[in-house]
Amino acid sequence: MLTPTARLLELLELLQAQPLLTGRELSDRLEIDPRTVRRYVAALQRLGIPVEGQRGVGGGYRIRPGYRLPPLMLTDDEAVAVALGVQAAGRMGLAGSAEAVDGALVKIHRVLPDGLRRRVEALEATLDFTSRARRSAPVRGDTVLLLADVIRRRRRVRGTYRAFSGDETRRELSPHGLVVHSGRWYLAAYDHLRDDLRTFRVDRMRRLRAISETAVDAPEGFDAVAYVSTSLARVPWRWEVEVLLELPVDEAVQRVPPTLAELVDEDGKTVLRMRVGSLDWMATILAGLGCGFSIRRPDELRTNVRELAERLARSA
Description:
Elements: H1 4-17, H2 23-30, H3 34-46, E1 51-54, E2 60-63, H4 76-91, H5 98-110, H6 114-126, H7 141-153, E3 155-162, E4 168-181, E5 184-191, E6 196-201, E7 205-214, H8 224-233, E8 239-245, H9 249-255, E9 262-266, E10 269-276, H10 279-287, E11 293-297, H11 300-315
Antiparallel strand pairs: 1-2, 3-4, 3-7, 4-5, 5-6, 8-10, 8-11, 9-10
């Protein structure tokens, strides 16, 4: 639910976006009664914003023509950072929707000085990215804001969670950290139902609400990024792979993302553990590491590696 301050700001945004809105239109969009609309209009007028009311058929509220809010005084570097941040959020799938990105840019443009606004618009029109836009799982802004708030205040949340299978269960969680990976939001949290640390897809969480109970503490030295990365590498695909790489672990982590595999030092070499759905794909991963290796399991992987080597030899 929006706070009165948030509704007041939304009212101001609506009046800036359209030349004239009736009291009924404002009431419907803000989900408040007409009397409250009039009270908010009066509040804006007391702040010195020239909101005008027109009575009669076709009347309504508008901001006096020609009025602009004071410009947002950003330096050139700050304006570039803001524009890039908004565009990158959309490109990486971090924003809730394309409409959220477009709406944010429109609002930023509105309060930039004219000269800087024109240059920022030129940057947005000419800028492109070498990477493709990610297929993401959008999340609601109010959801991630709620989770961030309870993490900071050390509170628990309750809600429902839909698993990959489609089953939905009620959960009570002590959130420890939010992590974004490949266009998806993940939450590292202590699950009071399972009595264990778990990783949750935020887009599968529903009807979340903060509760007054204090969250349990995270383990000492807990790193949410490392925990989520390890849990993603352990997703139970068909094949469980273990390979000894002829490579120190500090070099292995430069070649294998932590979300892809678990890497453990063993006498100066690296034990790689992964779960995969395709052994052919696993063979190509090993071939691309540029180091010697010994397959520990499964035995079937040896056949896939030999077949890949034969195909490469024929091609050469």
